[in-house]
Write a structure and sequence with these properties.
Elements (H helix, E strand, L loop, with lengths): L8 H10 L8 H19 L1 H8 L3 H25 L6 H6 L4 H39 L5 H4 L15 H16 L1 H26 L27 H9 L5 H7 L7 H31 L17 H7 L14 H8 L3 H35 L18 H17 L5 H26 L12 H16 L4 H25 L14
Helix pairs in contact: 2-9, 2-11, 2-12, 2-15, 3-10, 4-10, 4-11, 4-12, 4-17, 4-18, 6-8, 6-15, 6-16, 6-17, 6-19, 8-15, 8-16, 9-12, 9-15, 11-12, 11-15, 14-15, 15-16, 17-18, 17-19
Length: 511
């Protein structure tokens, strides 16, 4: 095979059983894990940015992103149940297309999870300093302690984002002490988020303020905004895709799941369907009550979300109440229609809930590191499992420090798009892997078979490529640059230390 070093399925499963993680999670916890990551970032952080890109077409953007994720989830469900080990798209690629491509996928997932976790940590910091400290406690944290020096759109004079560091390190500690403990805390946070958003839908959709006139024009920037612009309904979908990474994190937990052949597919597809419907309802409530038209530039194209030009427009009196100018969009909607108390509570819910998103993202990243280390592609000490906590504590600590550092000092304004580049690549590779396994391992037990794979598989690949080329051009460039760095590491270290390359391959004993 041109790429070589394909790891046999039996070897992957045997390796996992020899040096395994503790199985503690059921289908309900997995579904909550998926909901915990999906509901949070997209609704609480990206609603305003999505409306600026697509206007009322934000609802269509959620549907587009959700539809692509659902076909991808069907592919994930078959292969995650078939290969119930940690590693997600990386492991699946290793078993079908070989070590080199598997390394590129794992390297892309590291980018995805690290960037996303750092971005959400900074988003949480904004809610903490603005809603909790300023509004409720009357405490004003100086800008040099609450904003990064390079933060896009951040406060001038920033030096370090201290709240973002604190939340990243707290989540790291929680992940180190145990998966079950993490899942229990996440279940509480998911309940808070779902309750808050259900209240939002109940107060906006039947509201006297709701008017269908606000959905006209429905697509002010069109369906396609143009190559590299990142606007229009599809451009907004490419950004909003960031919020759907939760179902990918579910598959990374396959090795810690009881009865994975049954529970992983339920967790994947159930969380996606729930969240997609919820997203569309919330977007309809926000736009129908206060409107969601983007602020257009002189060329008839919306100003880029998070740009200086948009910030200047939002400072004008006529835009002070605009949805696209709000830093806490849903709370702002409720305050505008006379539900200030509930709006403040929703802001608190966002502050409480965003840590669950960071938790899931960091959980996913540590498991990718863990399985790459277990294969010898990264130093093996990283895959050490703590004797008491039963978690990969070394790599968890390293990940937490990296996320905290990035959140403290690096620009995060456009990182959702950057994270998406790695995500879309990994998802497309999973679809390829499922189709290859249908031919190379047709008799391998499959508790879940993707329906109409001949259609669903290609649709997933086309959908991911389609969204990738509707990202802003700068975000599209990040993936090949990051990939080039990864290839240097692979040929400099990983290829020579690979267990498979050195002939260390464990297989099941025959009885």
């Amino acid at each position: 095979m041109i790429f070589g070093r394909v790891k046999p399925l039996d070897a992957i499963i045997a390796t996992a059983e020899k040096k395994s993680l503790h199985r503690t999670l059921g289908w309900f916890q997995l579904t909550l894990f998926g909901i915990g990551c999906v509901i949070g970032t997209g609704i609480f952080v990206l609603t305003a940015a999505g409306a600026q890109k697509a206007g009322p077409g934000l609802m269509l953007a959620f549907a587009i992103a959700g539809a692509i994720c659902i076909v991808a989830a069907l592919c994930y469900a078959e292969i995650a149940a078939m290969i119930p080990v940690a590693g997600s798209a990386y492991t699946y690629t290793y078993s079908t297309m070989g070590e080199l491509l598997a390394w590129t996928v794992g390297w892309a997932l590291i980018l995805e999870y690290a960037v996303a976790a750092s971005a959400v940590a900074v988003g949480w910091s904004g809610y903490f300093t603005g809603t909790i400290l300023n509004q409720f406690l009357g405490v004003h944290l100086p800008s040099w302690l609450s904003a990064a020096p390079l933060a896009l759109g951040g406060a001038p004079g920033g030096f370090i984002n201290l709240p973002a560091i604190v939340i990243a390190l707290l989540i790291t500690w929680l992940l180190m002490i145990g998966t079950t403990e993490s899942a229990r805390v996440n279940a509480v946070l998911v309940a808070i988020k779902v309750t808050a958003l259900t209240a939002f839908v109940a107060l906006t959709l039947p509201s006297d303020y709701f008017s269908t006139d606000r959905f006209n024009p429905f697509l002010p920037a069109g369906v396609f905004g143009g190559f590299g612009t990142g606007v229009g309904a599809v451009g907004a979908a490419a950004t909003i895709f960031f919020a759907y990474v939760g179902f990918d994190a579910v598959s990374t937990a396959a090795e810690e799941t009881k009865d994975p052949q049954r529970n992983v597919p339920i967790g994947l597809i159930g969380s996606l369907l729930f969240c997609t419907v919820f997203y569309i309802l919330v977007a309809a409530g926000a736009i129908g009550t206060i409107g969601g038209q983007p602020i257009m530039g002189p060329n008839g194209i919306p100003f880029p979300a998070g740009s200086e030009e948009l910030a200047r427009e939002c400072a004008l009196p006529q835009y002070k109440d605009a949805l696209v100018c709000s830093g806490e969009a849903l709370a702002h909607v409720l305050r505008t229609i006379g539900w200030s108390g509930v709006g403040n509570l929703l802001g608190i819910a966002a502050f409480v809930a965003l840590p669950s998103v960071i938790l899931i993202l960091m959980f996913g990243q540590t498991r990718i590191f863990f399985v790459m280390s277990r294969d010898g592609l990264l130093p093996e000490r990283l895959s050490t499992v703590h004797p008491k906590w039963k978690t990969p504590h070394i790599v968890t600590a390293m990940t937490g420090v990296g996320v905290a550092f990035a959140a403290a000092f690096l620009p995060v304004g456009q990182l959702a798009d950057i994270a998406n580049a790695g995500t879309l690549y990994a998802f497309a590779m999973v679809a390829v892997a499922v189709m290859i396994l249908r031919r190379t391992a047709p008799n391998q037990p499959r508790s879940f078979r993707t329906p109409a794979l001949w259609l669903v598989g290609p649709l997933t690949i086309v959908g991911c490529v389609f969204l990738f080329f509707n990202l802003p051009s700068a975000a599209m460039l990040v993936l090949p640059v990051w990939g080039a760095v990864g290839l240097v590491i692979y040929f400099g270290y990983s290829r020579g230390h690979s267990h498979l390359g050195r002939g260390i391959v464990e297989v099941h004993e025959t009885h």
